[in-house]
Amino acid sequence: MKYFKHLVLLSLGLISLVILIYYHFIGGSGVVVTSVGQNSACRDVVSVGSVITEIVGRPITNTNDFLGATKNLKGSITLIINNNPRSCTIGENSSLDLIVREIKTGGLRLGIDMGGGLIYSFRQKEGSESILGDIVKTINSRIISFGLINTKVGVGDDSIQILTDSDEEMYIRYLIDRGALEGELTQTIELKGGKGGFSFNDKNYVITLKDSEFISINGSEYGINEYFTLEQVKFHVENITLNSTRLSGMVFDEKDLSLMQESGLGLKPTRLMKQDSGYVFVISVSLSENASKNFAKITKGQEVAINPATGESFLTNPLIISVDNELVVSLPISGLDIGKEKRDFVIWEYESTLELAANDMSRLLSIIESKRLPTEFTLVKSDVLKPKNSLWGIFPYITVIVLSGLAIFFFARYRGNGFLVLPLILIILGEIAIILSIVVAPWLVILFFLFGIGLSLISGEIRSWISWLAILLMFIMAVGVAMSKWVLDISALMGLISITVITAFVGSSIGEKTLRKVHVSFDYKRYSEVLWKLTTIVLVVSSILFFITEELRGFALTIFICMLVYTTMANSVYYDLIRRHTEK
Q: How far, in Å, are 175, 222, 319, 475 from residue 257 at the CA level?
């Protein structure tokens, strides 16, 4: 087909436009809870990350629906939370007290240096300013674990400053939380006549109730939320009543956990899988020697329940994994592991939605990898962050001026030869659409790479080793781009305008030769070889910027995509259109 490459390029441009439009308008149903107030009347049924789709029979699709449904809401109410019905009662002097955001699956996002955002300042409750640098490193590690692309952290005066946008604001609490991860086995001990007992590591201990508020163990008295140690294992008194007391034995904290290495079969230590109507996350960890001994001591002699359907045995009480005293995972323990020193351990949990499962997994991973912060923080100030007021901040205006100047130049130079201008303008617009679509949906870069290289091979433009080197670099960068998330920041815009100007003038050089009627002597094959060499050099520089410098990754991204599209498809299409026109 004569115009096969032309149709492919046009189709890819149209696909890019469709992707941009689709991701801009598509959205999920319902709202996501980002904050639950301390005095919320529905704290028992709503948590951060919950998806609310209905309130008192009214469907909730966005924040306006939510605000309308909750205005002056009192009495007993019903909600659909995570696809399950829930109810709570709002008294005359209480409120729902929830902060929510809309569910958005995608769309073009601006970097905080272009679109602005929010800035939070936190001050440590205790500790010296000398540890702020280490705290920033820990928070940066958490940012990476959560996959946040528009959140930055730094030190300002004597505080920690976090810059983010509205889409990632909900993760602030996870970044700045202390991150005290604890795994405990809890047991409830009945008290009859003020006395009871429990078994620990094959030993029996007597508990005596003292003054209704304290219990006595081994001659020492403890109250609620106090700690004691038995055989080097830390215990926590969670509750005391006239009839019972609840104790928790510490199996491990985050310092005792480390991610397992990827197995020889390629099995990763972290997995997120669809199961039935929900999602399961799995984290495979190794326990420290001390934690494995604690596990053996605490589980020995514990009560076991049998599942009648499968015949499997499990401890009656699950292992509770909490972060800052907030329950995250309730993990059943197999009866086969009782009394054993386990070194390999699997943390897993089932959640009703992908977002909940991904958030819990990322939260645990961030703490396992970076450990807890050395101190707690309090919010000092929050404010709206405006785009940078500098040369970077006025770069969008420079972009408009340069593009306008190019348009005027082409109109004046080729006003009598429209066939030279229109294809070039369409190619430039197509490149811009393709770049923006890849920022929105990075996986598209693989599609463009395969089509571009395939067409270049079919047309015979790849002839030398330098071309194959360029293809190798394109492949490496394509994989890097596809595995990342992106926003349109100043550096990306700088790359976009730079490559647009280069494309315009390289294309116009072909037009100039045609206009002067020297197209017959124009050796396109030699020109193509030079272009591939230039592409290789540009890709080497872009690869270095992409994988080494975070500040210029957006610049490298746009340069790479433009070189991929222009070198493999757009350049030959433009030349072919002009050649066909002049040979008529």
A: 19, 29, 15, 36
Rounded CA gap, 421 and 428, in Å? 11
Q: How far is 477 from 532, CA to CA, in rounded Å?
A: 16
Residue indicated by tokens 């990342």: 484
Phi, psi of 77 (to 5 degrees): -125, 155
Residue 400's domain comprises 4-23+389-582
> Which tokens hold the place of 231?
């055989």
Shared domain for 340 and 446, answered yes or no, is: no
DSSP of 533-579? HHHHHHHHHHHHHHHH-STTHHHHHHHHHHHHHIIIIIHHHHHHHHH
> What would the DSSP string read from start to end of 182-203?
EEEEEEEEE-BTTEEEEEETTE
Q: What confidence tier does 520 reach under pLDDT thresholds 50, 70, 90?
A: very low
Number of domains in the chain: 5
Domain end residue (candidates: 73, 104, 135): 104
Per residue in 288-335, pLDDT (tens digit) is 999 999 999 998 878 888 888 888 888 888 899 999 888 889 988 888
Q: Are 343 and 401 contained in the same domain?
A: no
What are the tokens at 162?
Answer: 């976090």
Please state, in angstroms and rounded to a whole number, the distance separating the CA atoms of residues 28 and 552. Answer: 32
Within this chain, do residues 282 and 338 fall inside the same structural domain, yes or no?
yes
The Cα 335–Cα 342 span in angstroms is 13
